[in-house]
Amino acid sequence: MTTISSYLDALTRQPTAARSAQGHWLVSRRSQLVFLYLSDMLVVGAAMVFAVFARGLVPFDGQGESAQLMYAVAPLVIAGWVVLLHLFGATELRHLRAGAVEYKRVVMASFAMAGSVGILSYLLKWEFPRGIFVLLFASGTVGLVLARFARRRTMGAIHRQGALMTPIVVAGDSGHIDAIAKVLRRETWLGYKVVGAITRDRVDQTPGGLPVLGGLEDTVAVIDEHQVATVLFAEGSFSAPSDFRRMAWQLEEHEVHMIVVPALTDISAQRLDVRPVAGLPLVDVARPRAIAAARWIKRTYDVVGSSVLLLLAAPVMGLVALAIKLEDGGPVLFRQTRVGLRGEDFQCLKFRSMVLDAEARLAELAAANEGSGPLFKMTHDPRITKVGRFIRRFSLDELPQIWNALRGDMSLVGPRPALPTEVAQYDSDTRRRLDVRPGLTGLWQVSGRSNLSWDDTVRLDLYYVDNWSLIQDLMILFRTAKAVVGSSGAY
């Protein structure tokens, strides 16, 4: 994504909280840590109880082993597990709202705990029951990950309601400030409320309407007046490294957290490697991944995935086809020329969701176009049939494109397949979307679908092309299910 996406993880750091000017109570760092430790202890304790009482479910549980040992070592195992979670950084608050770092560290700490128990049992000749060992660390690891996922989702839902928001100010040039504020307003689940701007520009408010609270020399005064705990510095904040250093010293005295937005854009964290050289934090940037995204690894993944999906979706596809046929007796499938990999045309398949003369009536609806850029979108398109409105709501009309993915015309994940008329309007940057196969789903779909502007759609697609990975594909497919069920942005 953009620069903002690359520092979302950094935004999750929670300094000592105060009551904000908006009247919301912020959750203090200490309260968050106490809650986190208690929830981890409860999960591990529940896993211990489950392992003891369900040990008989494991076929290799030794008959001569005794679970009595567990009553003595259970508190030590629970305490040791929680300590390792802390030592592995699984309780660092800056990773608790976004990204997979939190989950990775939980798994690593759990594996380390399992290894430690195994080694100690061997060295001390403990008769640690094998069945309990397997059930404890299997259920405990899964439970810890699920508990933290549930915590993250719960806090995101609370933030979307405007509660427990953390007030921040953004410093820098007005244009960069507005770009950051736009993202934070859209991604309310992060829990950050931008209360104002700090800029060198002599204006009362930024072009985006954000009030200017003062100049950079007034940063400390602004923080004290508005009880802000975090300052985000964008481009244009400092003219020299020494200015940044002095600002850091001032904010350190006031226990205010600093976040600096780098100048890098549209680069995933996986492509960045920071290494200090002679006191300079040099950032190595790996090459874009567009070529890798078009190679056999992704293609094999698509073939296997689309084959499985076709088998699973066959009953639903049969019912949809029958409903379309019964409504007006017309053809079930709609074939449309789309542009695929390297600009090659292909026939994209969809279940027909419009009346038979939909293409002929498009010209008369041009004035009602609600889309941006070359896209045509209309919330209440009169050409859509009753069955079509239902299948569009849940994206069932796109199920035949699984066959396109199996054939190699498309991929399971990628940019949306564009019309030739749309491609004709692409600039040189936007044409990079054609460097990978178009997908059944993509970042644009799980990030707002039709609610996104054309610029945001292109930005997300280009980010996907440059930063492709199989893990990202799996995450997009997982998020697609939620977006489809919620029918967000679909019409």
Structural write-up:
The chain has 491 residues and is of the alpha/beta class. The protein has 16 helices and eleven strands. The chain has helices at residues 3-6, 29-53, 68-87, 101-124, 130-160, 174-186, 219-226, 241-253, 290-293, 296-328, 386-393, 401-407, 420-423, 443-446, 454-466, 470-486, and strands at 166-171, 192-198, 212-214, 230-233, 257-260, 272-277, 280-285, 333-339, 345-351, 411-413, 439-441. It is globular and about 75 Å long. The two termini are 25 Å apart. The model is unreliable at 1-27 (pLDDT under 50).
Radius of gyration: 27 Å
Element-by-element helix/strand order: HHHHHEHEEHEHEEEHHEEHHEHEHHH
- Number of DSSP-assigned strands: 11
How much is the average pLDDT?
80
User: Which stretches are low in confidence, meaning pLDDT under 50 for 5 or more residues running?
Assistant: 1-27
Tell me about the largest β-sheet: 5 strands, parallel
How far is the N terminus from the C terminus? 25 Å
The portion of residues forming beta strands comes to 5-15%
How helical, in percent, are the residues? 40-55%
Number of helices: 16
Overall geometry: globular
What is the compact description of this entry?
This protein is an alpha/beta fold and 491 residues long.
Write the layout of secondary structure elements.
Layout (H helix, E strand, L loop, with lengths): L2 H4 L22 H25 L14 H20 L13 H24 L5 H31 L5 E6 L2 H13 L5 E7 L13 E3 L4 H8 L3 E4 L7 H13 L3 E4 L11 E6 L2 E6 L4 H4 L2 H33 L4 E7 L5 E7 L34 H8 L7 H7 L3 E3 L6 H4 L15 E3 L1 H4 L7 H13 L3 H17 L5
Helix pairs in contact: 2-3, 2-5, 3-4, 4-5, 10-11, 10-12
